[in-house]
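Hi, here's the filled form for the chain we discussed.

Project: internal
Contact: R.S.
Residues: 589
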Amino acid sequence: MTILGLNAYHGDSAACLIVDGKLVAAAEEERFRRIKHWAGLPTNAIDYCLREGGLSLGEIEHIAINRKPGVNNWRRLAFVLTHRPDPRLMLQKLRNIRSASSANEALEKAYGVSLKAEVHHVEHHLAHLASAFLVSDFQEAACLSVDGFGDFASTAIGFGHGNEVKIDNRVYFPHSLGIFYSAMTQFIGFPHFGDEYKVMGLAPYGQPKYLEAMREIVRVQTDGTFKLNLKYFRHHTDNVSYSWNNCAPEVGTLYTDKLIDLLGPARDAHDPLEQWHKDIACSVQAMYEEAFFALLNALHAGHPCPNLALSGGCAMNSVANGKVYLCTPFRKMYLPAAAGDAGGAIGGATYVQSQLTSDHYPKTPDLRSRFVLDHAYSGPEFSNSEIRKLIESRKEEISRQGCQMSEVTDQEELCRRTAAMIADGKVVGWFQGRMEWGPRALGNRSILADPRRSDIKEMLNAKIKRRESFRPFAPSILRESVAEWFEQDDDVPFMMEVFQIRSEKRALIPAVAHVDGSGRLQTVHRETNPLFHALISAFCALTSVPLVLNTSFNENEPVVCRPEEALDCFLRTKMDVLVLGNFYIARES
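And the returned structure, exactly as it came back:
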């Protein structure tokens, strides 16, 4: 059985392929088009998945799309009758719904084939819940999806059991924690789609001085849900522009002048960041956490299970995620590598798989029609012969930059040599194996550096990453060393949680310790990435520090996918070393 899963005509368009109950491939379209968060029909990602599976589109039996046009229509009608939104807003939403509903026609046109596949439209939040629960190793779990909007809802509360996941309750349009966070992100002067993580990174530099104002904007209800004070928002009545097709997504201004009356003037993207902006960021994060933990505690009261499957775009809030065990009764959590809309491709596909196999298996809490995603390495990979051919074709260009090239076929020696360079203060581009699924670089498309160096953050930001100086860098740590270095001990394979670094360890690793003493860690497991584990182990043997600084291999662009992009990024920046598969390229000192 073959299932092609798609997130189409929305930000972070993506595709995945499941064959006979196993994930064969998954990738986001942005990695191929080199445009961040690209929205539209993900034809390049589809092409990759089909190549990996040795299939043509005409051979696919089932296509899953993480949108279900027509769902929640009574809610839509009631909203139109009570709020009377700008007709242009409704026309815009209808066009987006039509795009999702006619994706099969768009595929036939793009590929020039008649599809034999049965097309399944899976409700947006059901796909989110499936993207967490149905690929976890839980036999049962409380499930929560929180994001901006999808299929006229922003939040879904449910439960997963065996091979099934169901929604019990929803928070409907126009109320949304994702819209709240996005509107405040715009207000603080970060205008681009996906900039919310900048607010999260800025928050520790402030104090929650505006929390009471935030409680005026978001009102937590007695049942654990929330409502927005809609006078501060435009998304439900005005013609807020959205661009979702064949482009980087763009979203118009989400807040009204009432927010300016409440908080003061909005910051322009080019204005300096002042302390009150940092205090607003801190207050936004505090308000989000207040509402988020109210949802989780209400969810646990309704489903008193120790396990949590968490998904949706807001589940990218790693700071809040890192406090789940501290602020709720949950004791085990699964967060998918792509918690946002890209993950809906896998979610839709796994939900369809669960439905198609339910007739063949008894409905008991087993995992027989499920696979467990304990790693994110599902993207393209390149052989050493392909890399050798690239290096040969660009040998003169590499030499002109004063670089020495060698091939190291012994992986233990490759790790020792690379670890020595990191320990010597060098910045290393590390390109290995299959590209990661989701937004994080997890040791296959990474830039690595020494976490002990206090000056490395400024150097990386200024000379390579070219990003805001307040944004932190992440530690990738050997799984067996987490308890010794962090105040909490958990599996965090996808870098989706922030924990406090133990106070006695912070001074040893200043490059990955944020201003509040925290770190957004990735736990590196020998079983799922033996080469990266061996590299960190080699670094630990030299320094007694079982972690490295890990940031994504890019420069204000999507994470590199192909070796050509890695080489280009290395040559135009100030990286010291590039390790492409077995090939070692080092700038002369």
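Let me know if anything looks off before we file it.
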